[in-house]
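pinned: reference chain
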Amino acid sequence: MAEQKFCQDCNQKHDCQKVYQQLGDIKGPSVVIKVLVAFLLPLVVFIVSLAVFARHQFFVKNWCRTEELQTVLSFLMALLVTFVCVLIVRVVNRRISGLEN
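pinned: its C-alpha cells
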C-alpha cells in the first residue's frame, strides 16, 4: 500500500511504468532449467552423497577407526562428488553452447 502511494507522488511514475512494461514484453528463452541445474543440482547431489557416505561408510571404515574422522571423510567425499558433478555440468553446458552457435 505504501509503495502505491509513493508511486502516486512520484513525478517519474510514467517512466517507471513504461520501463516495466517494456521489460515485461521481452520474449526470450526460459532460464528455469539453467537455474535449477546451477543451484539445485549441486545442492541435491551434495545432500544425497553426504547421506550415502554417512550412512554407508564402506569407504572410510577401512582407513580410520574414529567416528569423527569418518564423518569428516564422508563430508570431504561428498564435497568431491559435488565438485565433479559441477565440472561435468560445466563441460556439458559448454558443449551445448558450442553446438548452438
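why pinned: The CA atoms of residues 87 and 93 lie 10 Å apart. The radius of gyration is 24 Å.
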